[in-house]
Amino acid sequence: MDMNNEMLEQIKKAIAYAMTGNFYGKRFKGINPEDIKSKDDFEKLPFTEKEDLRGAYPLGLLAADEEKVVRIHSSSGTTGTPVIIPYTRKDVEDWALMFCRCYQTAGITSMDRIHITPGYGLWTAGIGFQLGAERLGAMTIPMGPGNTDKQIKMMEDLRSTVLCATSSYALLLAEEIEKRGLREKICLKKGVIGSERWGEKMRRRIAGELGVELYDIYGLTEIYGPGIGISCKYQCGMHMWTDYLYYEIIDPKTGEQAEEGGIGELVITTLQKEGSPLIRYRTHDLTREAGGVCPCGSPYPRIDTLIGRSDDMVKVKGAMIYPGRVDELLGGIQDVSSEYQIQIDHLNGRDIVNLFFETTLTDKADMKALEKTVEAAFKQNIGITPHPVAVGMGELPRSEKKSTRIFDNRY
Ligand SMILES: [Zn+2]
Fold first, then answer.
1. What's the gap in Å between 300 CA and the centre of ligand 1?
2. 309 has a pLDDT exceeding 90
3. Residues near 19 by Cβ (< 8 Å), separated by ≥ 6?
4. What are the sequence ranges of the domains in the chain?
5. Confidence at residue 379, expressed as pLDDT on a 0 to 100 scale
């Protein structure tokens, strides 16, 4: 994004503050924030990686006096040490304010009833949705994940109007409501779907089966949590709250700024965070600058809906495969559902790409023909020939958490 003088001054202040803490005090030793006079100077600062944050476990990221800390959150590491993020009262309030702004951007008001399915606890999801909704003055229904029967019953009885969920859980609920023939009894109008890359086809299915408008909300525990950006009704990317953060989009391989409008990795600098400020934090989320002015008139710049994770990019025979691209590809083929899974194996000295996808077709010959279509489209768009396998609807695993779609079993 652009860096005007005012932003440069804010960034310098954020860096100077961060350096009063132990983590950046050490990391940026020898750097004088006053020497940063331009965007170029700023871009010479080293990135901060999740691994660096892990190294500061448990409370090494704390930059404020401990008496100011009111809460901690932790990002779930599937492997290794978790990252602990301390929040001051101001951090918690700023987060609530940003999240409230997200709901408002989605046209949600204090008259809505907000059904929250992400988990509560150490991780930031549920509690972020809760804080923002309370700030807005809406009625919240803090369900947390799981127990689909209870979810649907509460949704029906309490006449929830807004569903907050991951895309995979929203899909699971949508399918269940459809299956039980309850759609007429459900009052949902909007869905706020959390920080996960998901394709157009899956969006259409959730929106269609639930009969709702969908909004993408963005965030990560290291930077407050969900709620630092959201899409508006024009669905042309997510507005980012740049009074609280500065973002860059970089080439994940070289670390240089991505070319204008090009796909790259999102890097975030916090401007106001007290508990654990972060400078040039690599999110590993792939996106691109949306550019231009949004018809909604919001002054906040936009990034595209997430395209994938830079660590999910898989290279096979010189071709890059990433989930967003496969979503887009399969989304354009009739009778192919939004659910798929790719398994990459190494057999007899060759890489094999097995592509499983769900289809609404049931006739064996039709399914074979569809496999041929998918194979040709994949070859043409991605540059490699997969081994496609059509399966029936609901045969691939669903999950309440983020779903992984590409499995690289070669190493
Ligand atoms: Zn807009």
1. 8
2. no
3. 25, 28, 31, 33
4. 88-308, 313-408
5. 93
Quote the ligand 1 centre to 236 CA distance (angstroms). Answer: 7
Q: What is the 3-state secondary structure (H, E, C) of 225-270?
A: EEEEEEECCCCCCEEECCCCEEEEEECCCCCCECCCCCCEEEEEEE
245-250 β-sheet, strand order: 245-250, 264-270, 281-287, 308-309
The CA 215 to ligand 1 mean position distance, Å, reads: 11
Instruction: Name the band, by pLDDT with cuts 50, 70 and 90, for residue 320.
Output: confident
CA of residue 79 to ligand 1 center, whole Å: 37
CB neighbours of residue 236 within 10 Å? 17
Distance 239 CA to ligand 1 centre (A): 7
Kindly report the CATH number that applies to the domain delimited by 313-408.
3.30.300.30
Calculate how far, in angstroms, residue 102's C-alpha sits from the geometric centre of ligand 1.
Answer: 11
Burial class (CB in 10 A: 0-12, 13-18, 19+), 256: exposed
* Whole-number pLDDT of residue 79: 62
Distance 230 CA to ligand 1 centre (A): 9
Residues 330-353 pLDDT 10s: 989 999 998 999 999 988 888 999
Q: Which residues of 350-386 are buried (b: 16+ CB within 10 A; e: fewer)?
A: eebbebbbbbebeeeeebeebbeebeebbeeebeeeb
Kindly give the distance from the C-alpha atom of residue 331 to the centroid of ligand 1, in angstroms, as a whole number.
Answer: 24
Tokens of residue 42, six digits = 């700023």
Q: Which residues pair with 224 in a beta bridge?
A: 220
Q: What is the third-level CATH fold of 88-308?
A: Rossmann fold (3.40.50)
314-340 mean pLDDT: 86
Residue of 279, 223, 280 lying closest to 18 (CA atoms): 279
pLDDT in tens, 95-127: 999 999 999 999 999 999 999 999 999 988 899
What residues does the ion ligand 1 have nearby, CB within 5 Å? Answer: 232, 294, 296, 298
Using a cut of 0.85, tell me whether the model's pTM lies above it: no
